[in-house]
Amino acid sequence: MNKAYIFFLLGFIFSSSVFAASSSVELKPVFIDLGNKASLQRGAQIFFNNCSGCHTLQYHRYSKFVDDLSISEAMVKSNLILTTQKGGEPTKLGSTITNSINHDSIKEAFGVVPPDLTLTARSRGPEWIYTFLTSFYEDNSRPMGVNNILYPNVNMPHVLWYKEGLKTYDENNQLILKVNGQLSQKEYEQEITDLVNFLTYVSEPAQLERYSIGLWVMIFLVFFAFITYLLKIEYWRDIK
Ligand code: HEC
User: Fold this and answer.
1) Which residues of 173-204 are buried (b: 16+ CB within 10 A; e: fewer)?
2) Ligand 1 near 158 CB (within 6 A)
3) Which of 50, 167, 196, 219 counts the most CB atoms within 10 A of its CB?
4) Distance (Å, rounded) from C-alpha 93 to C-alpha 73?
5) Is the CB of 65 under 6 A from ligand 1?
6) What pLDDT, on the 0 to 100 scale, is given for residue 4?
7) Atom 35 of ligand 1 has which residue's CA nearest to it?
8) Angle CA(86)–CA(88)–CA(91) in degrees, nearest 5?
9) Average pLDDT for residues 55-79, to the nearest whole number?
10) Whose CA is nearest to atom 36 of ligand 1?
């Protein structure tokens, strides 16, 4: 490869990354730890208490929480299943996670149907969801009274405002907390981390399995390297 070609390639890479950075808001990092079951359980609780009324997880089943998150069947039935089936009896453990919103009326209220969130952590990325949920601010020109730095003119209300409080821009264009919420900023960010951790697990539950298989593979490799080393000593002993 000649030099000019390499320079051309580098120039292309840099110019495209600068372009990408200038056209989008910087995403905040979030620490995803799928091995932390307590965090995944807290995330599930936050999701079902605050989000499941509008958003479905239609490619996931309640029953998976029993094995994957170690939540007992009774707990899933009493705390996570908040819907009923057509006949009025509670939704079954093996059902997919849908809700009973009427698409026409919710469209009238919000202008759009709230999207299913099963795969959002894969399509948008965990950092995107984390940044989205920490970027609401007061904007009285919007129908919901709030706007979002990452997703301008979003149609979702800031449903967690009672936890976070309400941020607003002061006269110097600085973001300040106008109304306090139940949590400090740090506690709120921790809850959002748990929630995003949960949505990341939901987007690819097989990851949990890969995590545990991965550990066994590492243990095997270390053990195998040791055996190979012993073999090497054994073989070379006579050659010396
Ligand atoms: C009152 C209904 C409502 C509730 C409750 C709600 N949302 Fe939303 N959400 C919406 C609507 C409507 C949109 C679509 C916004 C748009 O496209 O302008 C949305 C969009 C989103 C998006 C963007 C998805 C995408 O790919 O564009 C995410 C992520 C999201 N919501 C997460 C959550 C989480 C997490 C919760 C719980 C803390 C929650 N929402 C609670 C109504 C709701």
Assistant:
1) eeeeeeeebebeeeebbebbbbbbbbbbbbbe
2) no
3) 196
4) 8
5) no
6) 66
7) 51
8) 75
9) 96
10) 51
